[in-house]
Write a structure and sequence with these properties.
The structure is a single chain. By secondary structure, the protein is α+β, with helices and mostly antiparallel strands. The protein has 8 helices and 22 strands.
Length: about 425
């Protein structure tokens, strides 16, 4: 007798999907994640018992306050808001999920940027009761802008709390039209809009009887089917060197290897590579993984590379194939989200961290700032960038960097600025 019910076996494993919820305050982001965890059986009985007895519970009667499953900080439960990014894990027969619950308050926009930087998909929640005359809230616009800038391919717009407006299709269509206009202005090509009730579970895991006019899939089904970019094996080789390994220096056959994680492309013994930014070339003698040699290493693999001759390679250098090198330079233009409470000041000293390279940087000019209301870049007019502002800057670095455009290779196109005096992370940036 077969003990396995084949109907429960997935036809294919769709891999891991990293997603983030975004939107304005009280749009129901934490509640939605809690509902997904609960309906996918990702919550233990003792967790349910704990939140049912929590003193900050905001649901009447025996109902479950799903937001408490992600709002774990005392200050979050006390105030009823999300402050920091909370990561949760759940799975279905088809896919594993890592979900980030991002805060909606404007002052925590920098937290949202952190959570969105590694996401494959973004769920933008909209409170149907708060959209008047089709005017979307500012944070909806800001978070959509950030998701687009970070290159998140899949955007799902969940129009929440539809139960509070009697599942009015007219209101939903008005909101869908408003977001379509927003998407066109931001040049977001692909998105999906759906009506849901996170608290009641309508259209979250199962289709709702309240929306016969909605012919799309429920949220979880949609998330299970979204395509995820495979490891960037087909892209040019980028191997940021993290550590130089050396032993047996007194011997003629001493060992010298360069350890790191391949950011993109693939590497094989015999490949001709260039050390950037120096431009010195060499050939790969061997590729080591732990204690053995491998014939090929691909993006995501942590390996040690041995070259056929001794060349000057240090932490922060990048190995690229000679046929497809990165761009090397000291002067750059980039889009940044300012994270520090202290505004950008070109007179201050900043450190730039890009890949494994750390060097000093000087901001030359603030070119533009993004007007979140008008959804366009406007000249800075000499103004600086304050916390949570998004703008375009030019800067120079002391040492040359090997870089790519963020849209092409995020691993070598992203960076952070650090205030050299306070050691605060000042900005997250994307090279253009």
């Amino acid at each position: 007798m077969n003990a396995v019910n084949d109907s429960f076996l997935p036809a294919a494993d769709h891999g891991v999907l990293r997603l983030i919820t975004a939107g304005s305050v009280d749009d129901g982001k934490s509640t939605l994640i809690g509902r997904l965890l609960y309906d996918s059986k990702g919550v233990f009985a003792d967790q349910l018992d704990a939140i049912s007895r929590a003193k900050y519970k905001r649901v009447a009667g025996d109902g479950i306050d799903f937001a408490l499953l992600t709002d774990g900080l005392e200050a979050e439960r006390e105030q009823g808001i999300t402050i920091d990014v909370a990561y949760r894990y759940f799975s279905t027969p088809l896919r594993k999920f890592i979900v980030a619950d991002a805060p909606g308050h404007e002052q925590y926009t920098r937290n949202m940027v952190t959570g969105a930087s590694t996401a494959d998909a973004a769920i933008i929640l909209i409170d149907a009761t708060r959209v008047t005359d089709g005017q979307l809230l500012t944070q909806t616009k800001r978070h959509s802008t950030i998701a687009h800038l970070l290159g998140i391919r899949h955007i799902v717009v969940a129009v929440n709390k539809m139960d509070l407006i009697g599942w009015d299709q007219t209101v939903f269509e008005r909101i869908r039209a408003a977001y379509a206009d927003l998407a066109a202005r931001l040049q977001i090509e692909q998105y999906h809009v759906m009506p849901i009730s996170a608290l009641e579970g309508d259209n979250v895991v199962n289709r709702s009887a309240h929306t016969p006019w909605y012919d799309g899939p429920p949220l979880l089904m949609l998330l299970e089917q979204l395509g995820v970019d495979a490891a960037p094996v087909e892209q040019p080789l980028r191997f940021p060197v993290q550590w130089v390994l050396r032993h047996g220096g007194a011997r003629v056959d001493d060992f010298r290897g360069y350890a790191g994680r391949i950011a993109s492309g693939e590497l094989r013994p015999g490949d001709e590579v260039v050390v950037q930014p120096s431009g010195v070339t060499a050939r790969v003698k061997s590729v080591l993984s732990f204690d053995r040699e491998v014939d090929v290493a691909v993006a995501g693999d942590s390996v040690t590379v041995v070259l056929d001759r001794d060349v000057d390679v240090s932490r922060g250098d990048v190995l690229s194939h000679v046929a497809a090198p990165a761009r090397v330079g000291r002067d750059f233009e980039a889009e940044v989200c300012w994270l520090d409470a202290q505004a950008l000041n070109p007179a201050r000293k900043y450190l730039l961290k890009q890949g494994t390279r750390l060097t000093s940087a000087k901001v030359r000019e603030v070119l533009t700032r993004r007007d979140i209301h008008e959804l366009q870049e406007v000249p800075s007019g000499g103004e600086s960038l304050s916390m949570n502002d998004i703008g375009r800057i030019t800067f120079s670095t002391r040492e040359a960097l090997a870089v790519d455009a963020y849209a092409d290779l995020p691993a070598t196109g992203a960076f952070i600025l650090i205030d050299a005096a306070t050691h605060q992370t000042a900005a997250a940036g994307m090279l253009r």
